[in-house]
Design brief:
Shape of chain B: globular
CATH superfamily of the largest domain in chain A: Cupredoxins -  blue copper proteins
Structural class of chain A: alpha+beta
Order of helices and strands of chain B: HHHHHHHHHHHHHHHHHH
CATH topology of the largest domain in chain A: Immunoglobulin-like
Helix content of chain A: 25-40%
Bound molecules: protoporphyrin IX containing FE, copper (II) ion
Largest interface: A-B, 76 and 81 residues
Radius of gyration of chain A: 24 Å
CATH architecture of one domain in chain B: Up-down Bundle
Number of domains of chain A: 2
Distance between the termini of chain B: 23 Å
Order of helices and strands of chain A: HHEEEEEEEEE
Strand order of the largest sheet of chain A: 3-9-8-5-6
Number of strands of chain B: 0
Number of helices of chain A: 2
Number of strands of chain A: 9
Oligomer: heterodimer
CATH class of one domain in chain B: Mainly Alpha
Strand content of chain A: 25-35%
Largest sheet of chain A: 5 strands, mixed
Helix content of chain B: over 70%
CATH superfamily of one domain in chain B: Cytochrome c oxidase-like, subunit I domain
Strand content of chain B: under 5%
Radius of gyration of chain B: 23 Å
CATH topology of one domain in chain B: Cytochrome C Oxidase, Chain A
Chain lengths: 174, 502
């Protein structure tokens, strides 16, 4: 297991959850302390709530802004001359180009012929690097630059029927 | 004089009678809801074990069971919340029990149709039946699709009846939208105070939001249901898959969210009863929090379409903003308020109060998982992986379900005046929370490594994780069985000889 961005997020999740659980459990244990009237906890409680609200609001706004550059829809950062490659999903296979260029901005034009599918792209180490839905009647354009040479795998990311888990394709990046 | 006493006695008698009827309606809902949930938990364990390679399900059977598990769980949890809210509202104002029984019957008919469709017909398009899947490349006969759609229609019909009844109830009782939303409490508190009218109690906001958002979700569900039904009759009907997908998730996302917000009423009502003279009252902050919930729960559904790049760009940003904003009312008002209520309150720990409190913890943890996934930058890695399954099981299994169990035990404890021993509580706690955490951790861990959801057989490291996670599921179920035994023990004790005319 290597430390990928996803495992880092998992770590953040564990940490935040641990803090939340410990806080709430500590409050539960404090329930056994000397009994205090509701009016006595309310005013410091509400003051704390204000701080908590503002803190959360700041985290939410900052988090939102920080996450903006990582929205995958911008084709702006993608040179207009980027090569487009068609990808088609169908029950139960993918049609993908056999070879894609390394470290080059490309755009995958993804669609489906029958039902909804998803195109999940896994790098040679088996980690998911990008995904997009494949919808009949629509073309979803996924801007992308593949950073690692080797064999990539495509798995289906939208339930599509009895062999959904068997949908798999590979392509070479070099 | 004796006349007035007689009328008083009569009215008390009538109240007790109607309270007894209301309780029966509540138990009808919660009883059938928990039965569905209980059976479906066994189906869930069967699926998890199959994914772990402990035994095999043919893929067709796996996906039919997955469809049934998802659909019946949603119906089961919704029924529990509906019964709870219905009962709590009758303590405030009158509701016709016959309407409620009809709504429940419609929903149960729907559930039976869904079960027949999945188990006999082998329908397996998942409970979200995303168009065009129920019609194209299917491994089940066409009638099963029709039966499933009819089942959904019955469920939505019953749900709509309930929503209308509840909405009518709150609007009548609290003086229209203005009163039910506590508009004056927020904008002109002095006028509100001088008018002498008290604002609705906290649980009434859960009723209001469930009814309003519920009608919205129900309409969307009815619309897709009918559209797909017509498509089933006439395969040439052109439908836009993106349009259907939006409607499907307005329906599914909102309904799933409401199953968590509805049983929250149990926390408002029951948690204070374990404290020493503390109360959960309606403040302007609480009212505003529920207004926010009403709006953001309804528009957060856009996060289900983050990976549809054809979706208008603006709603992707709105989706992330709404998802973040939806977290504020629980984090700042409800869970914070619950913790404040318990803090130094001389809290009495029983099985019921433990479930209610731990439910808030589960809800928080699931919410953290949800927020991370609702961030588009992370959703690229988590969309439709087991991370999704992880976070929603966290707040359904260790949140909403615990609220319902908390309420059930609260009722049993109040009625019998008895509680469970510390040893039993510990044992159940270890089983339900410990086993549950273990089960959930498996999904988070696999999701963080990109294992997709809804796979009968998972790529590495999914299978190995599933094997280990199944053990947690077994421990959880043992805990729930102990819970059931304890509930029966408490229920069989004689009722306390005490009439409270509250
Ligand atoms: C011991 C308890 C449970 C176990 C072992 C379990 C197991 C499972 C499994 C294995 C899946 C399929 C996940 C996948 O690979 O995509 C699933 C899906 C699901 N479960 Fe559970 N579950 C449990 C409890 C619950 C509860 C209490 C609820 C709701 C109240 C629930 C609601 C759902 C829903 C809505 C789905 C989605 C189905 C779909 O993807 O179409 N589950 N569960
Ligand atoms: Cu698929």
């Amino acid at each position: 297991m290597r430390l990928t961005p996803e495992l880092t997020i998992f770590g953040i999740f564990l940490m935040l959850s641990a803090v939340a659980i410990c806080t709430l459990v500590a409050i539960a244990f404090a329930a056994h302390g000397p009994v205090v009237a509701q009016t006595a906890v309310q005013s410091p409680g509400y003051r704390l709530r204000r701080v908590w609200f503002r803190g959360l609001a700041i985290i939410a706004v900052v988090g939102f802004l920080l996450s903006l550059p990582a929205f995958p829809y911008h084709t702006r950062s993608q040179p207009a001359s980027s090569q487009h490659h068609p990808v088609t999903a169908l029950q139960f296979a993918f049609v993908v180009p056999p070879v894609l260029p390394l470290d080059t901005p490309i755009v995958l034009d993804v669609t489906a012929t029958d039902v909804n599918h998803g195109v999940g792209i896994y790098d040679p180490d088996g980690r998911i690097v990008a995904q997009v839905q494949a919808m009949p009647g629509y073309t979803n354009s996924l801007p992308l630059a593949l950073k690692k040479p080797g064999q990539y795998t495509v798995l289906c990311m939208e339930y599509c029927g009895i062999a959904h888990h068997l949908m798999r394709a590979t392509f070479e990046v070099r | 004089m004796s006349d007035t006493i007689e009328t008083l006695v009569k009215s008390v008698h009538r109240d007790l009678q109607s309270n007894r009827t209301a309780k029966r309606v509540m138990w009808l809902y919660i009883g059938s809801g928990l039965t569905l949930v209980g059976v479906m938990i066994l189906v869930g364990l069967g699926m998890r074990m199959a994914q772990g390679g402990m035994h095999t399900f043919q893929p067709g059977l796996f996906y039919s069971l997955m469809t049934l598990h998802g659909g019946a769980m949603m119906v089961g949890m919704a029924l529990c919340g509906m019964g709870l809210l219905w009962y709590l509202f009758t303590l405030e104002g009158p509701l016709n029990p016959i309407t409620a029984v009809v709504a429940c019957a419609l929903i149960l008919i729907g559930a039976v149709l869904v079960a027949i469709s999945a188990l006999v017909g082998g329908f397996g398009a998942a409970w979200t039946f995303l168009y065009p899947l129920p019609f194209v490349g299917t491994y089940w006969p066409s009638w099963a699709t029709g039966a499933f759609l009819a089942g959904i229609a019955f469920v939505v019909l019953g749900w709509t009846v309930w929503c209308l009844q509840m909405l009518g109830g709150v609007l009548t009782r609290y003086g229209g939208l203005r009163g039910a939303f506590a508009w004056d409490l927020v904008w002109s508190p002095s006028k509100c105070a001088s008018s002498g009218r008290t604002p609705p109690p906290p649980q009434a906001f859960a009723v209001l939001v469930a009814a309003v958002d519920g009608l919205l979700a129900g309409s969307a569900g009815m619309l897709v249901g009918v559209a797909l039904f017509v498509r089933w009759l006439d395969p040439t009907l052109p439908l836009d898959p993106l349009w259907v997908k939006n409607l499907t998730y307005i329906f599914g996302h909102t309904l799933a969210n409401l199953t968590i917000y509805m049983p929250l009423a149990a926390v408002y009502v029951a948690l204070p009863r374990y404290t020493h003279h503390r109360y959960w009252h309606t403040s302007a902050v609480l009212a505003v929090a529920w207004w926010a919930t009403l709006v953001f729960v309804a528009i957060a559904y856009f996060h289900h379409l983050y990976m549809d790049f054809a979706q208008p760009r603006a709603v992707q940003y709105i989706g992330q903003a709404a998802s973040y904003l939806a977290a504020f009312p629980p984090a700042v008002v409800t869970i914070f308020g619950g913790a404040l209520l318990v803090y130094r309150s001389g809290f009495r720990w029983t099985l019921g109060s433990m479930f209610l409190y731990v439910g808030m913890i589960g809800w928080t943890v699931g919410g953290i998982g949800a927020l991370l996934d609702a961030t588009v930058a992370f959703n690229i890695y988590f969309h439709n992986t087991l991370w999704v399954v992880a976070h929603f099981h966290t707040y359904l299994l260790e949140g909403a379900m615990l609220f319902v169990l908390g309420w059930v035990f609260h009722c049993l404890e109040e009625r019998s005046g008895a509680t469970s021993s510390r040893a039993v509580r510990t044992l159940i706690g270890v089983g339900v929370f410990g086993g549950g955490a273990w089960l959930l951790l498996g999904w988070y861990l696999a999701g963080a490594q990109g294992v997709p959801r809804r796979y009968a057989l998972q790529p590495a490291p999914g299978m190995e994780i599933s094997w280990w996670a199944s053990l947690g599921g077994i421990v959880l179920i043992v805990g729930l069985v102990l819970c059931g035994i304890e509930a029966i023990r408490l229920a069989r004790r004689p009722a306390r000889q005490e009439i409270s005319v509250a």
